[in-house]
Amino acid sequence: MELRPEGLYSRARDGAEDVLPWSRIMLGMRLTLGGRYPGRTGQLTLLEKLLGLTVRAGEVARLADGDWLGRVVARLAEHGRWARGGVQRVVREAREAEKQGGV
Known about the structure:
Order of helices and strands: EEEHHH
Number of strands: 3
Largest sheet: 3 strands, antiparallel
Helix content: 25-40%
Radius of gyration: 14 Å
Strand order of the largest sheet: 1-2-3
């Protein structure tokens, strides 16, 4: 799966391609990874919150902006799922910092 400007892009093993437009992304999305990709120190908890807050803010297209997403994820990588003050606060602050030019 790739995050692209037009939406979530996926390609099946049989070569079939599909794009889910950002306008169709629904709130409450959850991520599930197989046993080969165990969650480390709660990063999935952070990623789920980042996706949810970004969608609710009407800024879903930002998820396809590799530079923005990379900077926010780098900020979040400093925290685990037991982030002081709570995951929602940490994610909100990382998003806000990038809105203000990465200050």
